[in-house]
């Protein structure tokens, strides 16, 4: 008799978990399935978009790592409803025109969501802080160059 068995089918993330927010934003998008040609899709576009956004928020950009995340991470499993897309499916989705349209709609919905919940408003403020991009993670910045470019 083991009382420590986790029932994955009924697992729900906490209300303030980021997968809940990603799920709310993607579900707000009015998505019509307009796929006439070819065979029917095995995976829902919304679940692939949710998985991609969740992986990007975790700093995971490789299709193989996203596929691994979908299998091993419990919140990612909840987003995809226990389906595990292969890395090729994820890669095909990310380069498709549909993904581009979905992401632009998702950004608009995110802005509306943030304004509705008073996280942002119409006022913007720039403080001039210099933050290195992730691409420059391992590059060394010389003090002399910073002073020269500041002028």
Automatic annotation (TrEMBL):
Transposase InsH N-terminal domain location: 7-94
UniProt protein name: Transposase
Organism: Apilactobacillus micheneri
């Amino acid at each position: 008799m083991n009382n420590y068995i986790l029932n994955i089918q009924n697992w729900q993330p906490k209300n303030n978990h980021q997968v809940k927010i990603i799920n709310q934003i993607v579900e707000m998008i009015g998505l019509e399935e307009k796929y006439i040609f070819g065979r029917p899709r095995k995976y829902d576009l919304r679940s692939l978009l949710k998985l991609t956004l969740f992986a990007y928020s975790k700093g995971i950009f490789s299709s193989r790592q996203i596929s691994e995340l979908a299998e091993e991470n419990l919140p990612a499993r909840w987003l995809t409803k226990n389906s595990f897309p292969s890395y090729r499916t994820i890669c095909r989705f990310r380069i498709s025109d549909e993904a581009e349209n979905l992401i632009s709609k998702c950004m608009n919905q995110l802005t509306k969501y943030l304004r509705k919940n008073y996280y942002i408003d119409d006022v913007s403020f720039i403080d001039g802080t210099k933050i290195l991009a992730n691409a420059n993670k391992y590059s060394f910045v010389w003090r002399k160059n910073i002073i020269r470019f500041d002028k």
